[in-house]
Specification:
There is one protein chain. The protein has one domain. Helix content is 87%, strand content 3%. It contains two helices and two strands; from the N terminus they run H-E-E-H. It has a two-stranded antiparallel ribbon. Strand 1 and strand 2 form a beta hairpin. It holds the Pfam family IFT20. One of its GO terms (cellular component) is intraciliary transport particle. Its main location: other.
Length: 133
């Protein structure tokens, strides 16, 4: 015990296997425990970085998918606008055609009435001509 105290004063210690150590057994055990805790912490940090990396990758993929869908939606909206404009132009053409046909119909109606009047006059003339004979 005296030898152990003298060695302890010199900073030398025996461990549980009676090997000569520079560190006190308790300090050596704490150091080993701290080393294990550090290793576990580094492993957990690496795992966390891997998870975060995966999450960032997933968010990037979702952003790309959202951008792609947005472009599709813009394309569809532009297509609908152009179709609507085409329809509007077609409608205007058809309205113009209807107006033109109505005017033509009115001209034909007047012409028909005029021809009917001429026919009536001629029939009346023929009737008078026949009665005179």
């Amino acid at each position: 015990a005296m030898a152990q105290a003298a060695l302890g004063a010199a900073g030398l210690h025996f461990d549980e296997l009676n090997k000569l150590r520079v560190l006190e057994p308790e300090v050596a055990a704490q150091t080993a425990q701290l080393r294990e805790e550090c290793r576990a912490f580094v492993d957990k940090t690496a795992e966390f970085q891997k998870i975060v990396g995966g999450l960032i990758e997933l968010v990037d993929q979702l952003a790309k998918a959202a951008e792609s869908e947005k472009m599709k939606a813009i394309g569809a909206r532009n297509l609908l606008k152009s179709i609507a404009k085409q329809r509007e132009a077609q409608e205007q053409q058809l309205q113009a055609l209807i107006a033109e046909k109505k005017m033509q119909l009115e001209r034909y109606r007047i012409e028909y009435e005029t021809l009917c009047k001429i026919e009536a006059d001629q029939n009346e003339f023929i009737d008078q001509f026949i009665f005179q004979k």
